[in-house]
Amino acid sequence: MIIRPAVDADLDEILSIHNLAIRESLAIWTDVEVDRADRERWLAAHVADGHPVIVAEIDGRVAGYAAYGQWREKLGYRFTVENSVYVAEEFQRRGVARALMVELIRLAREAGMHTMIAGIEAGNTASIELHRQLGFEEPVVIREAGTKFDAWLDLAFLRLQL
């Protein structure tokens, strides 16, 4: 497995992973799939802001991707970032998410960030457990913070002091 910065050539596979999460999971709280132009803007915005987007490559394929971005827009939050990590279905349970998160945390520390936040659908126990194992604090749960698939969803926030 190679962990490296994402490039434009990765966007079709990133798009596929992203849209599958929209269609079939509670990881992304929208029902609206995006197109390649959306992912191009997303990658360009991260690069322009100095926020990393990284991929895990296995056998020449994007097995997963991770990124962090500013948690909130106000200046006082400039040292707090929120992470995202997604793994292609066929590469799940192979350590891809962990490898991506370890590198993302390293990059955040290197960039001088102070806090990393993870917002996870509260029923996603595997993701919550991964974050706990990486040192994130126990979650604070906001009940019925959003909705998808005609159900109210609870949002778990976890925090890692970098």
Textual characterization of the structure:
There is one protein chain. The protein is α+β, with helices and mostly antiparallel strands and 162 residues long. The chain has one domain (2-161): Aminopeptidase, CATH 3.40.630.30. 32% of the residues lie in helices and 34% in strands. It has four helices and seven strands. It has a seven-stranded mixed sheet with strand order 1-2-3-4-5-7-6, with helices on both faces. Strand 4 (80-87), helix 3 (96-110) and strand 5 form a beta-alpha-beta unit. The model has no long low-confidence stretch (mean pLDDT 97).
Keywords:
single chain; 162 residues; alpha+beta; Aminopeptidase; 34% strand; globular
